[in-house]
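FORM 12-B: Structure-to-Sequence Request
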């Protein structure tokens, strides 16, 4: 089970790298004015979302379920963690929607919105790590 835990953590880090970086790309994309930059950001965003973030999310959840089945954890801390992971999945899907808006030149939000939007996974990561390590409930 330690190998499963290791893979869960590796893919969680991969997923979070994308969750941190994609909204930052949105900040810069929202600020760009020339077509060459816009096209470059579209490519970077697509590759990050489909090549790193989404596989990271899938494997994080897959190995997380495997851990849960193997260890049989339960309790309030796990329910809170799962709620946060569900929220991250919604955030991930919304990032995909924003990616499509940028792809089709339909973005209506400013770089300031994306700067604040970029902070959501930071708060989730802090809460999830505290829940898993401290198990306060």
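FORM 12-B RESPONSE
SEQUENCE OUT:
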């Amino acid at each position: 089970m330690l190998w499963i835990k290791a893979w869960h953590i590796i893919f969680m880090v991969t997923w979070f790298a994308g969750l941190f970086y994609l909204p930052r790309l949105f900040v810069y994309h929202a600020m760009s004015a020339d077509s060459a930059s816009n096209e470059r950001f579209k490519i970077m965003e697509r590759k990050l979302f489909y090549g790193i973030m989404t596989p990271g999310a899938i494997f994080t959840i897959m190995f997380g379920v495997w851990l849960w089945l193997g260890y049989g954890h339960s309790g309030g801390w796990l329910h809170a963690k799962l709620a946060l992971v569900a929220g991250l999945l919604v955030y991930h899907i919304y990032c995909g929607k924003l990616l499509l808006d940028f792809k089709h030149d339909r973005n209506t939000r400013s770089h300031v919105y994306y700067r604040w939007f970029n902070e959501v996974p930071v708060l989730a990561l802090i809460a999830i790590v505290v829940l898993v390590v401290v198990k306060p409930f």
